[in-house]
Amino acid sequence: MSIWKYANPVIFMQTSGRLLRWLVPLTAVLMAVGLVWGFAFTPPEENQGSTVKIIFLHVPAAMLGINAWLMMLVASLVWLVRRHHVSALAAKAAAPIGATMTLIALITGAIWGEPMWGTWWAWDPRLTSFLILFLFYLGYLALWEAIEDPDTAADLTSVLCLVGSVFAILSRYAVNFWNQGLHQGASLTLMQKQHVADAYWYPLMISIGGFLCFFVTMVLVRTRTEIRARRLQALLARERMA
Amino acid sequence: MIALLTRDLRLAVRAGGGFGLGLGFFLVVVVLVPLGVGPEGGTLAKIAPGILWVAALLACLLSLDRIFALDHEDGTLDLLATAPIPPEGIVSMKALAHWITTGLPLVIAAPVLALLMNLPGPGYPWLVLSLLLGTPALSVIGTFGAALTVGLKRGGLLLSLLVLPLYVPTLIFGAEVVKRGAAGQALGVPVLLLAGITAGAAALLPFASAAALRVNLR
To answer: Which of A134, A148, A150, A232 is deepest in the core (most CB within 10 A)?
Structure first.
């Protein structure tokens, strides 16, 4: 059996229902442990004091903000190539979550930046490209809202997602032109030796895991909602025909 | 395709008066900025590259929904879709016509308006060059946005929301060229990147626009 059997809405509903039974408690536990550990039981850092703790919200949200768009890109490609409706609906389901995560990353960054950099906002390349990413999410969501026919909407938003990805990457490198900016480089990579002290590393990893599970859970739930809404429309249409 | 281009140009010049609209808007924005900022020459010279580019971009944006809207209303677009030229050709010609009626006048008028903005002397050739290189990208990207929203009743606002983020790289590199040119710095890299964006957009985006157009005319 290939992965494409899950493109069948019935099988998708069954499988996702079974998965959610495990994912929801797992998400709750991971997020609770990660955030409570991070906020309450980590020592204040010597330079930044307790403001460092916002990292447990900021970093996972920022990672999801980017990766949600990546997931939408893959789902859009699958829709355009193989025309599986579940895929288009999953892309639609992921967009508001990604937009929210981007907004959380921007806001937590501003809250952290005010005491640390002395400013809520700076036109730093990373900050700017995140703001632009947020605008892309807004445009994508608005296009879904504006078009009535679901298949047309899926097609057009998929094309927008592909083109938007290219331009989002272009913008990311274009803003580098100004300066290197205030934002520190990535201090977190899975492969390299870690730059973060163990006391922060473990709760941060748990928090990232929790956010990831949260994202998967939300996408599954929202996709299921979309599928149910689509079924409802089909039933209504049939009723009208009869 | 040539016939389509000449038809679009003739329509733009003769009917509807859309031809000078973008240009007039460009003029008004550039005149309004010193009124808001104040007439100090130093400040104006400093913000001139950015303002000129943002104004050009907005003027371009203003005329985007005319690219397909009128043709869609009177059914010309459906006829064009059944004509023996591929949709990619239609959108390319539409973008070219849009550039000739909107982008090219902006390029020609920009030096005069730069005078009002007190742009430093060495910046002028670079302003013209950057607009000449950059405005085709604005038209091509805009045509993509117009193709996405062609069937919508109130597409205008949505169109701006969709297109403006896509304009970001062009705006950054375009304004950067003028800024560096005015300051007499090395500007090979942004010029090349700006040209690269235009070339890349002109080569690839018509396919995306045509795909969107096909979906909308289905």
So the answer is: A134
